[in-house]
Amino acid sequence: MIQRDKVVLLLLLSLMTILLLFDFFPGISEIVLVPKPILVGSLLVVYCAGIFLLPFQKEQKFDVLWQAVFPLYLLILIVIFTLLGGNSQSGISFSNPILWVVLLISALDIRKSYKKGMADQSVM
Q1: Distance between CA atoms of residues 110 and 72, nearest Å
Q2: What is the dihedral angle through the alpha carbons of 102, 107, 112, 115, rounded to the nearest 10 degrees?
Q3: Which of 2, 17, 34, 97 has its CA 20 to 30 A from that of 91?
């Protein structure tokens, strides 16, 4: 069951990477022959499959790890794509205050989940 979770998460990360690649380097769409709507549709299908087909996580540790890895991975991608000379067409950059608000909310949610997981373990 954990393997299925990892496959879904890997697919989500892969599709998000490709979409960010298209966003930062719009000229790459001439090289890669997969249209953006198909990528977005695939992302939505994988996301919905993850929600409806996978059982809810019983392990709080895995959930907190995923919550921490996903934003960190996206930040690393933004840094790499920016250093490679890419420029986001949708405004995803470190100068965008919305990015920082989302990261702050994500960090607070991770902290809350981690504390809840620690409290649940101490009760047992």
Answers
A1: 12
A2: 170
A3: 34
